[in-house]
Amino acid sequence: MYSRLKIFSGNANIKLSNEVAKYAGIPLSDAEVFKFSNDNTFVKINENVRGADTFIIQPTCYPVNDNLMELLIMIDALKRASAQRINCVIPYFGYARTDKKDQPRVPITAKLIADILTTAGANRIVAMDLHSSQIQGFFNIPVDHLSALPIFTRYFKAHLDLADAVVVSPDTGGTDRARSLAKKLRCGIAIGDKRRAGNDNKSVVLNIIGDVKGKTAIIFDDIIDTGGSLTKIAKVLIEHGAKKIFAACSHGILSGYAVKNLENSPIEKLFITNSIPLSDKDKVNCKKIVQLSIAELLAIAIKKIHTEESLSILFR
Ligand code: R5P
């Protein structure tokens, strides 16, 4: 059994960390995480953590390398301060898309990051909706892989008319994800035939497999980055007769022209979680974006991990 529970936050998503701490019923622990003028990141833990069960909340979102470095240095500081266990809560795991050697002479960066986190001293990872579940296996320490699916399910059941709904995966890789949501919403699925050409972010949607005519399509993906995938499939869904289009993604990266693309698309609402903060005005003011909080889910997970209870209930 672990004695004291302490929750720390890096700078990546302090709003989320505060919300999690509130749900967990304890204040965020005191640490300074900042950069010197020479661009070096520095961390100082301002309270005793000897023998403590520590959790660091830090999504590795934009600026990815800075946030990752903060996390690594926080782990190191806690390790050298004799924390008993260091749990890294990484609601959004950057570099997750570089998870296989699918071209000659390319890295598997997700595996590299897993190795670096472990070498730094992480004892456990708490992640959410990793780009591919296999990334869990890149770590040789326990990984609790949470899902925002119950949060989306609850919200959709309460707020959307699901009578003619169909869950759409933008590509074949996301079929299982779409099927899980469709099962919970008791509706069918359709799949986009999406291809990516080259190394850039550009994708093309060639066809839709499944019946979407006259239906309310809910496009379901793990990530919205530039918005290319979602907006392209939305257009093809309209061409195939879909009457209404919603989209839901666990992680709203919203890079480049994502918000503009979304505004100009037939997507009525985009549901994302707060794993990544909505940093700039455009994103906050975009009427189409609805952010659902994962704070309570993370707080329950942290408390259950601390008391060594099963997390199964979080998937129901
Ligand atoms: C791809 O495999 C992912 O699941 C997402 O579809 C993709 O990352 C979204 O990127 P973008 O918004 O730039 O099309």
Structure report:
The protein is an alpha/beta fold. It folds into 2 domains: 5-148 and 295-315, Rossmann fold (3-Layer(aba) Sandwich); 149-292, Rossmann fold (3-Layer(aba) Sandwich), CATH 3.40.50. Helix content is 31%, strand content 26%. The chain has 9 helices and 14 strands. It has helices at residues 14-24, 64-80, 109-120, 149-159, 175-185, 228-239, 258-263, 281-285, 295-306, and strands at residues 5-9, 31-35, 41-45, 53-57, 85-90, 124-128, 143-146, 165-169, 188-196, 203-209, 216-224, 244-252, 269-273, 289-292. The strands form 3 sheets. It has a 7-stranded mixed beta sheet with strand order 10-9-8-11-12-13-14, with helices on both faces. A 5-stranded parallel beta sheet has the order 1-4-5-6-7, with helices on both faces. The structure holds ribose-5-phosphate (R5P).
